[in-house]
Records
---
Amino acid sequence: MKLSTSRGGFIMNRRDFLKAAAIATATAAARPLSAETVQNAPSVKSYREIGKTGLKMSDISFGAGKLSAASMVLRAVDCGINYFDTSPDYGLSETTLGEAMGKIRRDKIILTSKFCKPMPYPGHLPMGTMKKDYIAAVEGSLSRMKTDHLDFVFVHAIGEMNKDIELEKKRLLSDEMLGAVAELKQAGKIRFLGTSSHGPNNMEELLMTAVKSGHFDVIQPSFNFMKFPQLPDVMKEAHKRGVGVIAMKTLAGAKDMKMEAREEEFPQAAFKWVLKNPEVSGLIITMKTVSDIEVYLKASGAEFTSADQRVLDRYAGLYGKEYCRTGCGECEVSCPAGVQIASVMRYHMYFKDYGMEKRAIQSYASLTRNAAACTECDEPACTGKCPYGLPVKELLCDAHGSLSLMS
């Protein structure tokens, strides 16, 4: 293994870093399960209706963005998890899910994927995509997952790459996409249509447009205890119209807990806060290891308590000035270099807190305006522009250092 020097000592080159990270994750995910572990493992305690689809999902469900082994899928099913969220641009996630499908009754699980290309994230199909390409995206997912249909397919990440809301509305309600959906439904290859958004641009307005359009059966917003003042209005409208609401990014940055509470108490408190909202059908959370499944499912069906609120208050006190609120993006307009601040921050979160190092580096490399300019910026216009008091330039420079490992 070759090492390169830096101001902090030594760093691995990118290839060795990613290889080491992948080995560590796979080892943790695949650890053997003793009879005692299986017997005492938590399980899903609550299933909720997804709008008016007739489907019910486990309140805490499986985000497969870091799926490392088919055994993880089987373990989740054994624990009662029945909803699995993946995408063509989540690495080998769809293929790994496909490896598990031969051992799972298809009618016992809900499979969702996205209108995306099988390339490093983000692979979202852009505005102007033709109907045949939407159809090809779904057929590719079906082939990789070894199944004959998806329960949901999503127009993914509305408001992520384009600040022009009218253009994003055109992508959201594309005639080519809707035509493909009609054809795919007729062929029995998909059942329902959804859309997702983690911002940073116009998340609430775009999701409200989706809800009121009548075309979508479910929305998937970023939703946690740290922000989103307008999102409850969208969720209430969705609930009124029978549109399901599935929450993501529920851990508000998933920072390590450096406080008195046990580490596992924070995710449980965060999940219970989300699930106390009656409009929420369920939440998806990336599950990388068996331990994740065991810890997260302890919140299933559980009541949100005053003790949970105290845990969240302590977390907010510790990390409120570090966590870039997903879906915000209010500081971006101040940057004369046009740095895609919110996307840089989110990819750094994937790298630093989510254990998705490879995906984060690849996604960062795809940005047209990353944070390289920040390292030479002497008079940062972003200073003081964050409504939550984050030191924007310092965080961007840190992100660029992490996500631009030497090749």
---
Amino acid sequence: MVQKQQQKWIYSKEFLFQIVLHILVFIFYAIDKKHRIIETHQFFFFLNYAAAALFINYFLLPRFFYKNKYWQFGLGLVFVFLATIFIEELVLEQIYFPDTKGKKFFGLFYTLIDVIPVTIILSGFKFAWDALIKQREVETLKSAVQQSQLQFLKSQVNPHFLFNNLNNLYSYAIESSPKTPEIILELSSVLRYMLYETKTAFVPLKKELEQMKHFISLNELQIEERGEVNFQTQNIRADYQIAPLILIVFIENAFKHSTASLSDHIVIDIKTTLLDNGTLKFTCRNNHQSESNTDNLTKGIGLENVQRRLQLLYPDTHNLTIISDENWYEVNLELKLTVC
């Protein structure tokens, strides 16, 4: 229903555009500059040209030109111009100029000089109109595809996160750990945010960082006494917004690979700073053992997901660098944020 209403609106605007265009072209074509009048025969001659343009615009262009049938379109143009010349020479001139123009055919080239300019102008504007509408449709389609991709990528985050944390919860439950209720509470808080507050493309920066804190607290339970986690924020302001669940992926990877490769002395440093120009600088640094399979980190689903989302949401306003050596893995991300 909405699409039909939009189509009707487009057709209405095109109809109005064509009327205004024909009136303007007719005035420039028919008005006598000396006497400031329009003679009757000018209207019928113009009507002949307008009919030719109408046939080109609504039959030849959609049937042949837009379907890449250029030979058929060319033959159609020849037919239209010959028919227009035929009507002008054998009908209109015989009625209005029987003693002058009607007595003699001045040649095809001379007649085309009268026929082509008006016809080409009317058809050219129709072609430009169609191109504009098509461009808008392409942009709308691109936007729809991009939104679909973003929704798909965002939908992958929740199962990925849930899968990892349910495994941790299961191990604590098996051991009857007293920390199990605390894990469930933190997990519930993070999942509530993911499910209900990240449906929009952007969320307030402070809210996202608040959930990051909950997320870090949840994952700190995996480390216990085996290391330390440092989380710092600087100059965070309430008037900036960020795409949700971008930074969490890097933090999750840091915990995942540090805890998997190290039994103790785990170090994870996370720092988020908002510069005065609205650029967010995010650093996530974690240690690991050189023999661990850290190559999987750069090829994991979570990281591929977030890299794709960054390309879609911040195509020219982000810079992601990943540095890895035998003992440390570091992510540096700069995002140009927008104001709420």
---
Amino acid sequence: MFEDYPKTATVRNGTVIALRPMVREDEAKLLDFFRRLPPEDRLFLKDDVTDPKVIHTWAENLDYHRVIPILAEHEGRIVGDATLHRARYGWSTHVGEIRLVTDPEFRRQRLGRILAREIFFLALVLKLNKVVAEMMEDQQGAVRVFTAMGFEQEAVLKNHVRDLEGKYHNLVIMSQDVIGFWRRIEDRIADAMADRSGA
């Protein structure tokens, strides 16, 4: 599954970034990445990612069968983190959950979309049917990114989550069909490569 990594991708301003799975040795870099995030960004994350114990636990317990973390790296720094979470047993084994965080310096550069496409590629390889994303309703930037990728809102759960300051927020659940997403990507590629000159 990881034979093609590391991969390279170019963001909107021409910067080339590397994409690869997280390994244990990334612990310090990942902690540095999360600590560079603005406090208002960290407020909405599910864990206190500035706590070294949290990142150490992730690094020491890497299990690609349960969570696949894909990192974006530029000049030795992690600038993006996308994860695909999936259940190994039970009635939702066909569903994956995507979580996505990008460095503020790389926002509006389509890094989020690049990482999300990687997650969809992995979901396709793993034969998942559906990918969901959960976010607080206040995270309008995240809502816009996923909407632009074709995700549709499935539900809003009132006062369902608390941020790191203990404040309650509505939880938005969005989803996307994996096969349908890749068909749209393939159609766009086909359109872009088509010779429209009439020759």
